[in-house]
Design brief:
The complex is a heterodimer of chains A (228) and B (576).
Chain A lengths: L10 E5 L3 H11 L5 E5 L2 H10 L4 E5 L7 H11 L5 E5 L4 H7 L6 E4 L4 H17 L4 E3 L5 E3 L4 E4 L2 E3 L3 H12 L4 E3 H9 L6 H15 L4 E4 L3 E4 L3
Helix pairs in contact in A: 2-3, 6-8
Chain B lengths: L1 H15 L3 E4 L12 E5 L6 H5 L5 E2 L6 E2 L4 E9 L5 E7 L6 E8 L2 E8 L15 E7 L4 E9 L2 E2 L5 E4 H36 L2 H20 L2 H5 L5 H26 L2 H4 L1 H26 L8 H24 L5 H22 L9 H78 L4 H27 L8 E4 L1 H12 L1 H7 L2 E5 L6 E4 H18 L5 E9 L2 E7 L16
Parallel strand pairs in B: 1-5, 14-16
Antiparallel strand pairs in B: 2-3, 2-5, 4-11, 5-10, 6-9, 6-12, 7-8, 7-10, 13-15, 16-17
Helix pairs in contact in B: 3-4, 3-11, 4-6, 4-11, 6-8, 8-9, 9-10, 10-11, 11-12, 11-15, 13-15
Classes of the chains: A alpha/beta (228), B alpha+beta (576).
Chain lengths: 228, 576
């Protein structure tokens, strides 16, 4: 349980066509994570994935419109490492074999006991740690923890402001990839309008804290957060 | 010793020829044999010619066999006693076509009798199965009797001389025996036909037809059909004597062919049997030809007699072969055949004139037939009983299989119906467990929320199991039910998982007022298996159509899954 605390800040997406089932799973998983999002089919799930940062997916297998298998395939095409847990009413070999190429973290047969849920969450956690999904190291040795939203230099915490944290999360989601200026603008102008100068200020201060080498400026395009 | 001397005396008298039958106080001759003279000729002779004919030969053989000429006989009888003697004279062979009897006294015709089975009963002094007449002799009276016998086969030209009372007493006894055996065999025929109708075992039918024709034969050849005077045309009675033994023999030969399934087991014997049957069919046709077209051909009938003689021996050999081959019931068949063959040989020899025992001869053949018929009935009965119990077993097994398949389906259906509530219940347990472990404060709230849900799901599960498996708690019960609601409320529920999976549409056009009176389980089982098989082979999104159509006294269930139907070959496997 102590370890599972590290998942607390994660967001779980539950996909199931049965509303009662959704409600119950939400109740159960709600004890382990703070944020739970639900979707009643695969298409809805894909839409949510595109708009929100999701850490773990629990999906039913048999669903109308887009079943668990299709959903898995779709997710794997875009997100290589996101843990997917498939839940099914049937322990059918064929289904199990079909889904293996899309590397689910676990294949659970309903009804799912607490023990199994905890085991699964442990597996998922181990996987996320291995894939640096809970934290990642920057080129200069700093480490950022998603779950606790803390930036550490060895044992020392580096305090970050709210806006700096917001920006870092955005960059972290695109590690080693270009985060465009537009994306950054959108992030800050989303809730309340912010001046271009203020945004530049946030970027400046963050670069100062995490090191210029770790956050590379791509002239007039955007920035790349560099991880080992 | 006395008998021996008597025999010598008779032999002596036969050798030295006493040509007048003397009636003495203590010796009354039993037959005219040894005292009668004959002539066979197709010239247009009259009784008067015979009376004065000196070229007559002494009769040495009563049975002249197949003959194409009429035979004239003459004997003289004298009453040496002081009393009036009353006799009945009869030709022991019933069924001779024409016999004319002329009685002369002092060369004057005093009486003429028109006998023979082709002459009407009205012309006779009294009705008897034999050609018979009364002969009264006054004291010291001498009469000359001239007879003319005309038949396809002249089997007897002699006359039995019986006392008036003796004759009718003997006839009573024989009639009683005939009626007894006849009645028995008649019931035997009815019995076999009934058994055939019940079991569809052709052997029963063959047996009944065989016995029927044998019965016709014995009753016609012994003159009963004639003496009963029940309006059967005389020609037909006469034909029966010739035709019925041929037909009955064909059935007797057919019996082992059908009963022992020779076709598959003994192809060589089949060839022999078919050959014999072909010969008999030829005999049948040619005999008809002889009777109706050309009487003169009857001279060839002797050859057929050889077949009558040989056939039982061949059949006996075949039955012996079956016994050696340890064919089931082979020993019974052999035993029955043995008895029949011995009596048949005896009968044939008697007809041909080689042996002669007594007036009771005619009863021997029906007696033998009765014994053989009983043996044959016994083996057919045993065999068909075996088959019936085998069929019943198979039927029971099939019904049991049907039941198990449907129980399997019902369990499958139940498991499917249980999936969701089981998941819910499992989830609720997990929720409560989680709450207890990590969120104790909320336990009360969660319990209140989920306990009703828990009991609701358990209720549903118990109801489902009762509904689906309760059907099989009782073995079978014929009752009234509405097929439409049975389909809706039971069959489709059991199969719901598969129907959903295939996204199949089950359409049914059934009048909701139709009521069936049968074992509902059988109806359910059959439909479940049909639909299940269709669903197995169907592509998704297809439909199945079930219709119940009223048809006079029953209903027709039409089932169409549009899957190309069942191939002709395995259609008996539908319910495997």
């Amino acid at each position: 349980m102590e370890n599972l605390q590290r998942l607390k800040q994660c967001t779980i997406l539950i996909v199931d066509d049965d509303a009662k089932q959704l409600d119950m799973m939400k109740n159960i998983l709600g004890n382990f994570v703070n944020n739970i999002i639900i979707a009643s089919n695969g298409i809805e799930a894909i839409e949510i994935l595109e708009s929100k940062k999701i850490h773990i997916i629990f999906s039913d297998y048999v669903m109308p419109q887009m079943d668990g298998l299709k959903l898995c395939e779709n997710i794997r095409n875009r997100y290589k490492n996101i843990p997917i847990v498939i839940m099914s009413n049937y322990s059918e070999k064929e289904k199990l074999l079909n889904i293996i190429p899309f590397k689910p973290s676990a294949y659970l047969i309903k009804p799912i006991s607490l023990k199994v849920i905890m085991q699964t969450l442990h597996t998922v956690l181990d996987e996320m740690i291995e894939n640096n999904q809970l934290s990642f190291k920057l080129t200069n040795g700093l480490e950022y923890f998603f779950d606790t939203k803390i930036l550490k230099n060895g044992d020392k915490d580096i305090p970050l402001s709210k806006n700096e944290l917001k920006l870092l999360e955005l960059l972290a989601n695109n590690v080693n990839k270009l985060t465009t200026n537009n994306m950054i603008d959108d992030l800050f102008t989303d809730c309340e309008p912010m001046s271009y100068k203020a945004i530049a200020n946030v970027i400046y201060r963050l670069r100062k804290k995490i090191g210029k080498d770790s956050l590379e400026n791509q002239t007039s395009l955007g920035y790349i957060l560099k991880s080992i | 010793m006395m008998r021996f001397i008597l025999l010598i005396l008779i032999f002596m008298s036969y050798l030295f020829g006493i040509d007048i039958l003397h009636i003495e106080d203590n010796t009354i001759p039993k037959t005219t044999f040894g005292f009668s003279y004959f002539k066979q000729s197709d010239e247009n002779l009259s009784a008067k010619d015979i009376l004065n004919d000196s070229s007559l030969k002494k009769v040495k053989k009563l049975n002249l066999g197949i003959l194409d000429k009429p035979v004239w006989t003459k004997f003289t009888i004298k009453n040496n006693t002081q009393k009036i003697q009353k006799f009945v004279l009869f030709n022991e062979r019933a069924g001779i076509n024409y016999i004319d009897v002329y009685i002369y006294k002092d060369k004057k015709l005093i009486k003429k009798h028109i006998l023979g089975d082709m002459n009407s009963q009205v012309l006779r002094e009294f009705i008897s199965r034999y050609s018979a007449f009364f002969l009264d002799l006054d004291s010291n009276e001498t009469l000359e009797v001239i007879t003319k016998v005309e038949n396809y086969g002249v089997y007897n030209i002699g006359w039995y001389i019986h006392g008036f009372i003796d004759f009718f007493e003997d006839e009573q006894t024989i009639l009683f025996l005939f009626s007894f055996l006849g009645g028995f065999l008649f019931f035997y025929i009815l019995f076999n036909i009934a058994f055939y109708l019940i079991s569809k075992e052709i052997s029963y039918l063959i047996l009944s037809l065989w016995v029927l024709f044998i019965l016709i034969y014995t009753y016609s050849v012994n003159g009963y059909f004639y003496s009963f005077d029940i309006g059967i045309p005389l020609q037909i009675i006469s034909d029966m004597q010739w035709i019925s033994p041929i037909v009955s023999t064909i059935f007797l030969i057919l019996f082992p062919y059908i009963f022992f399934d020779l076709k598959n087991k003994y192809p060589k014997i089949v060839k022999i049997i078919l050959l014999i049957i072909v010969i008999y069919i030829f005999i049948f046709i040619s005999t008809y030809y002889m009777i109706y077209v050309d009487n003169s051909l009857f001279i060839w009938y002797k050859i057929y007699s050889i077949f009558y003689f040989i056939t039982p021996i061949i059949m006996l050999s075949i039955s012996f072969y079956f016994m050696l081959k340890r064919e089931e019931f082979g020993e019974y068949y052999f035993f029955g055949q043995l008895i029949l063959t011995l009596f048949n040989i005896f009968h044939t020899l008697e007809i041909l004139g080689f042996v002669h025992i007594s007036v009771y001869n005619p009863i021997i053949l029906p007696f033998a037939i009765t014994i053989d018929a009983l043996f044959l009935f016994l083996i057919v009965y045993k065999k068909s009983k075996q088959i019936l119990s085998l069929q019943q077993n198979q039927k029971d097994i099939l019904m049991e299989q049907l039941r198990y398949i449907s129980i399997g389906q019902a369990i499958g259906g139940m498991v499917h119906q249980w999936k969701i509530p089981l998941t819910y219940i499992g989830n609720i347990v997990t929720i409560l467990e989680t709450t207890l472990k990590f969120n104790k404060d909320n336990l009360q709230k969660e319990l209140e929320k989920y306990l009703p849900e828990l009991s609701l799901n358990i209720d549903y599960m118990s109801h489902t199991s009762e509904e689906l498996l309760g059907q099989y708690s009782s073995k079978s019960r014929v009752k009234l039910f509405y097929p439409k609601s049975t389909i809706e409320e039971y069959i489709l529920k059991v199969l719901s998982s598969k129907i959903t999976l295939k996204n199949a549409k089950i359409e049914y056009q059934i009048d909701e007022n139709i009521v069936f009176n049968m074992d509902e389980n059988i109806f359910i089982n059959i439909l479940i298996i049909l639909i299940d098989n269709s669903l197995d082979i169907m592509d998704i999104n297809k439909d199945i159509l079930i219709k119940i159509i009223e048809n006079k006294n029953n209903y027709i269930i039409k089932y169409n899954d549009r899957c190309g139907g069942i191939k002709e070959k395995p259609n008996y496997k539908i319910f495997d």
